[in-house]
Automatic annotation (TrEMBL):
Protein name, per record: Dynein assembly factor with WDR repeat domains 1 isoform X2
Gene3D superfamilies, alphabetized: YVTN repeat-like/Quinoprotein amine dehydrogenase (2.130.10.10)
InterPro entries listed in its UniProt record: WD40/YVTN_repeat-like_dom_sf, WD40_PAC1, WD40_repeat_CS, WD40_repeat_dom_sf, WD40_rpt
Keyword field contains Repeat: yes
UniProt source species: Mesocricetus auratus
Ranges occupied by WD repeats: 88-129, 130-172, 173-214, 215-256, 257-298, 299-340
Ranges in coiled-coil conformation: none
Domain of life, source organism: Eukaryota
PANTHER family (UniProt xref): DYNEIN ASSEMBLY FACTOR WITH WD REPEATS 1, WD40 REPEAT PROTEIN
Keywords: Repeat, WD repeat
Amino acid sequence: MKLKSLLLRYYPPGIMLEYEKGGELKTKSIDLLELNPSTDVNTLVEEIQKAEPLITVSRTQQVRLLVQRLQEKLRQHCDHNFYLFKVLRAHLLPLTNVALNKAGSCIITGSYDRTCKVWDTASGEELHTLKGHRNVVYAIAFNNPYGDKIATGSFDKTCKLWSAESGKCYHTFRGHTAEIVCLSFNPQSTVVATGSMDTTAKLWDIQNGEEVVTLTGHLAEIISLSFDTSGDRIITGSFDHTVVVWDSSTGRKVHTLIGHCAEISSALFNWDCSLILTGSMDKTCMLWDASSGKCIATLTDHDEEILDSCFDYTGKLIATASADGTARVYDASTRKCITKLEGHEGEISKCWHTWKWVLLTTSWTER
C-alpha cells in the first residue's frame, strides 16, 4: 500500500487517507471524535502513527498541521445569532422536504407540484427545476459529501437520479408498487436506497441504473432508512413497529429490533456504528447495541409522539423532537436528560445538529 494524500475532514473531525493498493485508489479515515482544544498534539500524532502503518515519519509534520487546524476550528466562537437570511418563493404548491449539499452552497426543495428545484444558497437564485415525476416529489437528497448528484423519490412510485450541476436526469428507478417516502445514498455514493409504502426497500446502482437488491420482511410501510458510515449495513424503520438491520450487499436480515409498540418515526446509527437510535409514535426513543441488536435503554420523558431523533457527531449526545412541542438532549452514556428545549408553539417535526452541536428544530406551525 502506498499513501497518496492526506485530507482534512472537519465534520466529524478526522483525517482522510487516500492510498493505492493493487493499482486501485482507496480511502480510509482516522476518526478524531475525542479531539478538543486542549488535546496534546504531539502525543496524539504519536498514537496515530502507532495505529496506522500508512502514516510514516515523513508524514509526521503534515499530520501535526492537520490536527492543529482541527483544533483551531474547535476553538472558534460557537455562540451563533440566527436571523432570517432569505425567503425562497419556491413552488406553486406546498413543500415536502428540503436538503442541502455538504458545503451548504446549494439547496434542493421537493413539492406537491411534482418538481424538485435547485437553488444557490447565497443568492437565492433558482438554478434548475427537475421535472419528470408524475406525482408528489416527497423524498430528496444530495449524495453528500460529493454533492454532484441528487435523488428524488415520488408518490409516482419511482426514484430519479439527477446531475446537480446540469439538472440532467441520469436514471429513473422503477420497481416499487407504492409511493416512495424515504431515500438515502450510501457514503461511497455508489448506491441509493429507497423505502416505500409497499413495505420494501430497494438498493439501486447509480452507475448502471439497475436494482441491486430488494429488502423484504416488513409487514407495513417503510418510512425511515439509513446507512452506517461504512455502507455495509442499512437500517429500515416501519409502521409495523420494528426496525431491521440489513447487510446492504446481500440483503440478508442481520437483526430485527423489537420493542416499540407504535409506528417508527426515525432510525439511525451513531458515527462509529456501535449504537442505533430509534424514535417512535409510542412517545419513546430506544437505544440499541448495533452488534447484538439488544435494547440497552429506553428514553421515556416526552408526553406525545417522538417525530424525530438524532446523535451528535461523537455519539455522546442524543436529541429528540416531539409532538408535545419540546425537544430534549440526553447523555448517551447515562441516558439522562440534560436539557429540555421549550419555545415552539406546535409539534416539532425535525431536529438535527451542526458542527460543535448546535441543535436545530422545526415546527409545522411556524413554517
